[in-house]
Design a protein that fits this description.
Layout (H helix, E strand, L loop, with lengths): L6 H8 L1 E4 L1 H7 L3 E3 L5 E4 L8 E8 L4 E4 L3 E3 L5 E3 L7 E5 L5 H17 L1
Parallel strand pairs: 1-8
Antiparallel strand pairs: 1-2, 3-4, 3-8, 4-5, 6-7
């Protein structure tokens, strides 16, 4: 029987980003895992201030691709610039997944009971 690695769980946790101030006020949660479709604002680096939807999340490389963060290569093709999730703030959450709603509700309830 193969032993399962704990690495994917760690990598998923590393893909969390802070929520914007408005979302923190609304949900009383400070961070969530980034997901394809979420709208994020880049907070650091060359693309500071760019806001766009997340087009791809790469768990192995621990990066996200944002719509506005692109670069043109020498041959003319346009590629996404990889951005680490800790350098973005989520401004709009996609809540069409019931599991994600449950996570948000569970974390909100635990924050209210402790604080």
């Amino acid at each position: 029987m193969k032993k399962r690695s704990k690495r994917p769980k760690i990598q998923r946790k590393q893909l969390s980003a802070m929520l914007s101030k408005a979302l923190v006020q609304e949900y009383n949660v400070h961070s969530m895992r980034v997901r394809k479709g979420d709208t994020v604002q880049i907070m650091r680096g060359y693309f500071n201030g760019v806001e766009g939807a997340v087009t791809n999340v790469d768990y192995k490389k621990a990066i996200v691709n944002v719509e506005g963060a692109t670069r043109e290569k020498a041959d003319g093709t346009i590629v996404f610039v990889p951005i680490h999730p800790s350098k973005v703030a989520i401004t709009r959450l996609i809540l069409d997944d019931p599991r994600r709603k449950d996570i948000l509700e569970r974390r909100t309830i635990s924050k209210r009971s402790t604080g």
